[in-house]
## 1
Amino acid sequence: MLATQQSLSVEDIEIDLLLEGIFRQYGFDFRKYARSALRRRVRNFIRDEQIGSVSLLQDRILHDRQWLDRFVCSLSVNVSAMFRDAHFYVTFRKGVVPLLRTYPFSRIWVAGVSAGEDLYSLAIVLEEEGIHDRCRIYATDINDAILKRAKDGIYPLDLIKSYTNNYVRAGGKRLFSDHYTAAYERGIMNSSLRDHIVFAQHNLASDASFNEFHVIFCRNVMIYFNSELQAHVFNLLHESLVTFGIIGLGARETMKFSPHEHAYEEIDKNARLYRRIA
Ligand SMILES: C[S@@+](CC[C@H](N)C(=O)[O-])C[C@H]1O[C@@H](n2cnc3c(N)ncnc32)[C@H](O)[C@@H]1O
């Protein structure tokens, strides 16, 4: 016990206390986020906000919800792109859409939706494949501010250009420009894409399962968690998925070594799409 305490730096102790305080005051649980990345973000935050120490940050956050909201934004990495990992979407069209066609109605959960890049990519595929009307998509994130951006579905035109290349490589069936309207250097995604989407805040670390889904995307979220929190999230996803349901992970994530590894089969070796078989 003494050895553990001695090996922790003062900063680490302060970070532990900060995370514990946030959890007890607000219920947001960052205690099991991968520590080195989290430490870096906390340091950047107190430097950018010109706060003298982590303890002073704790004081502000515990007494003022607005500071918590800013801190949550700074902790969440929102890097994303439409049709990122073209092969993922090619495999989704070929290997998952035919299955969804056999269902009268599908519930889909996009967890850790960020500003909606993955979400609109998915909605575009479903629309092009003629099954969008038969799907309800639940888009969730821990970060309320980023969720609002997802709802708005507005992206800078220079980004849209790179999304256009991804879309073509991912097997897009029309022109990407059919799916948005350009105005004032920005692209606004077609409102029809949003027709069957429910947006809600949900914390994968502490909130419960809220439905049973046929497809769950949880891409590039768990890479920021330690192995204990990853196992917790895998359990949550598993209990939220119907038998023969599909899970889509990010390129650097895998079902291997997860608590339910043997209940899934790979749809394709390189696509990180898995079908629940047990
Ligand atoms: C890198 S983005 C991934 C976006 C998208 N899924 C993709 O692959 O392009 C990670 C997202 O996970 C969200 N996130 C982080 N911790 C979370 C948690 N505990 N519960 C729900 N979302 C979380 C962040 O706010 C961020 O929007």
Note: The chain has ten helices and ten strands.
## 2
Amino acid sequence: MDSYACIMCFRCQEVCPAYTTGKVLSPAALEINKRYHFNGGGTTDVAMTELISEEAVWACTSCGACVDICPVGNEPMRDILDIRRNLSMMESAFPKQLETAFKGMERNMNPWNISQGDRMKWAEGMSVPTIEQNAEPEILWWVGCAPATDSRAQKTAQAFAKILNTAGVNYAVLGKNEACTGDSARRAGREDIFFGLASQNVEILNEVAPKRIVTTCPHCLHTIKNEYPAFGGNYQVIHHTQLINELVGAGKIQLSVSGEQLSVTFHDPCYLGRHNKEVDAPRSALHATGALTIEMPRNGAKSFCCGAGGAQMWKEEEEGSARVNATRFAEAKSTLESAGPSAGADMVAVGCPFCLTMMTDAAKDGGSEIQIKDVAEIVAERLK
Ligand code: SF4
Ligand code: SF4
């Protein structure tokens, strides 16, 4: 139906981060190739790779831009993820670099393959209550694998803990009982791994019965909020920037706005701004710090991907004319530069640990002085 609904406007192709950085993937071509196939007498019983190359299938970042922009409601991304499922599950045909992340999720319940025993190491020296220590919290903080185990993203977790503790929030984390949500496994077609992790997480969450869940990763937010209901898990889930706003609004944290003037452009994570339509909370939190915020041309629900979603975080990027993260960082840099010389530091703010890694790498590769920080870090540095 999608293939016959397609009006060949190519809008999906124009916004696709893979296509626009020279990869072989075109979401429009997929729909059009399907139509040729059916017009030629083909049936739905077809190896989808006859309509799209494997290289193209693995170039998708699952950013959702093609779905968001299509005027007739087509969903090329969903086709691509279904094709990945077939390749990964039925043919074991997936980029070999993904094996490490798959093994990590299977053996140690996180794609970084860090022992579960080390999952609370980020909180050493801090007061962060686990669910065993605080069985009835007002809010359950789902830390996420990246903030719990990645050395750079751990700073986001530490900053958010500082904010919660300063505000006196009654919260708890699952600690060693928290496993990967399975986001990357599902996006890479490994439904078996996703099924195992989702089932286990829902069982634990239903036992805890949290009133609300706050996540420090939009991928965790998306998966728990939108995909766990199919596993019997129905929860209220918010992003950490939403909770920060609540705390500022309720006067539970006060921020010093008299420090160094920051010129900040916020890079919306696809899984927050587009997939979950939350674009205001990170900006409000940044405004509360007194930062001067400047918008990139592609922002909010129309943001451009950092390049890490859809399990790209765990594999090399396909051949193209540019890297997705470098393309996005260049947009951020020129936005900050076009605002003229700033009184203080230039910064790209993020709200996702994957974006944090991708933007940090792009800044480093480009020899740029621009700092990359999570909104929680910027807020925590301004706590009175
Ligand atoms: S989800 Fe994003 S990367 Fe994938 S085909 Fe659509 S626009 Fe391209
Ligand atoms: S945006 Fe929709 S209608 Fe336009 S080419 Fe893409 S799939 Fe077809």
Note: The first strand starts at residue 139 and ends at 142.
## 3
Amino acid sequence: MNKRITLLKAIVFSLIIIIPIEGFSWGVTGHRVVAEIAQNHLSRKAKKEIKKLLGNETLAEWANWPDFIKSDTTKTWKHTSTWHYVNMPGGLQEEEFIVKLKSQAGNNLYNQILVLKNQIADRSLSIEQRKTALVFLIHMVGDLHQPLHIGHEEDLGGNRIKVTWFDEPTNIHAVWDEKLVDFQQYSYTEYATILNRTTREQRESWQNTSLEKWFYESYIIADKIYAQTPDGAKLKYRYNYIFENDLNTQLLKGGIRLAKILNEVFQ
Ligand SMILES: [Zn+2]
């Protein structure tokens, strides 16, 4: 009896530990929206080079693979689990933020985006290696635009902030990964079409800032999310109303900027 209880405790305890870390990213729709928007802004050269790596498959088809492999039990991809986010303390000014972002060691979202860009462009690597790097990059530029992937370490990017979404218990990271996106009730192609109305001027203004600045923009929205979503918050229509614009802008910027990186890499 005692043993059983201990076993049960161990299981419950390990679930509690596992669940917060499992927070995915943008959910399947969000990542596909980012990828689909990017697909529409690729240069002719980039399209040609990407075809050599992905064949006739689209960026959107691959956008979620780096999350799917978290379920791989062979541990082949275990080392990539830290690539999806970077932890930052709250309340930093832009300059401090950028210094901290650049000086953080380890394979985090920021450092790894830089590594992947180089790998994709490196012709001494095999097609398979470059393809893997490309697929990760497609996914991670999406993650970079999900504000809570630039969140606080102590709450695991919001995974520990428990809220309800239309009375269903969840956490604020999951709300931003999936709930808000799914609430719009678009397929990824519909969503991409609806968002993808930009002027050249707008696109250039988003593309021509630094990668560090893109991280900072996400971080500022994360600050706003933290401020507006206390533990135990009951989220419904009003939450969508407050954040819908931020959500859509982030998805759109993600796509426009992914295209910029790919056009640059395949110049
Ligand atoms: Zn991710």
Note: The chain has one domain: 25-265.
